[in-house]
Amino acid sequence: MPVVRAVVTGAAGFIGSHLVQALVAGGHDVLAVDAVERAGSREAALANRAELAQAGIAVTEIDLATDDLSRLAGADVVLHLAGRPGVRSSFGPGAADAHRDNVIATERLLAACRGARFVLASSSSVYGSAERPCAEGDRIDPLSPYAASKALAEQLAQANGAAVILRYFSVYGPRQRPDMAFHRFIEAALDGSPAPLYGDGRQSRSFTYVGDVVAATIRAAQVPLPAGTVLNIGNPHTVGVRDALDRIGTLLGTRPPTVAKDAAPGDVTRTWAGTDRAAALLGWTARTSLDEGLAHQISWHRARRKVAHG
Ligand SMILES: NC(=O)c1ccc[n+]([C@@H]2O[C@H](COP(=O)([O-])OP(=O)(O)OC[C@H]3O[C@@H](n4cnc5c(N)ncnc54)[C@H](O)[C@@H]3O)[C@@H](O)[C@H]2O)c1
């Protein structure tokens, strides 16, 4: 593939930082953008940015919701991962953050980068709870301000750009955000202090390894696709949260301690990725097994604790 000028937003984020590294390793000319102050965890974003800096990759500070975006025009491809993720935190005051960083930021970026190929990171949460594998043409049912903000961002992208919309399903792996379940569970096991377990733990998810998500995102930027294509990017094998806890316990030799909490608002019972379209149009399927992906994530937690504790 020829070297393209790619803008990656959310570059100091969990998924975005891996994406930037993969694109740079592939020889692409990348402008990595983030507004670290807007991250749900500033500490995590700073650590990711520092890791990129060590690899010789600079992240340009631009707040997509307020700053001048003219220097982003002229990109061949825009991979838009910046935003305010998280279902639970989007209720109450968090709703305004979700709107600002998921909707306003997307609207402004689309306007600034008209003509570029635009890949939008959306979310499985737009489907609500799944009773069977979700297909991209299914009716959506956003059950949280976060899901609603992602649905709105999708509509803006459909209306304004040559956009491809990727609905990511529960991503995990090294650098996973500290508010996410596997991160909390692994830290709880390593610390011996309990992590909250929301609801009855019977929820299940299409947990998807970050390396697979990055591979799909790069394919979506390269493969010719009709504008407005929506693709589920998820592992079609769903796993229960309790089962995941058991697997983490087996890998670590100690089951993460948990403390029961009420079901969180907007927390759906099941997500389930139907991936026929991604397989047909991208030639992509998730390859990494949960055990393999969890082992990578656990190694990352151990390495970072070693650095922190000297
Ligand atoms: N992690 C998942 O399981 C998952 C699932 C579905 C969808 N997604 C979507 O994928 C994308 C990346 O998720 P993540 O888990 O890596 O999140 P993350 O919070 O780690 O990364 C998002 C980054 O966006 C940046 N950002 C926020 N607002 C900004 C703004 N106004 N201008 C510039 N940068 C801004 C943040 O500083 C942060 O570094 C998000 O859009 C998220 O909604 C993630």
From TrEMBL:
Signal peptide boundaries: none
InterPro entries: Epimerase_deHydtase, NAD(P)-bd_dom_sf
Domain of life, per lineage: Bacteria
Residues in NAD-dependent epimerase/dehydratase domain copies: 7-234
Pfam families found in the cross-reference section: Epimerase
Similarity comment: Belongs to the NAD(P)-dependent epimerase/dehydratase family.
Stated name of the protein: UDP-glucose epimerase YtcB
Source organism per UniProt: Actinoplanes palleronii
Gene responsible for this protein: ytcB
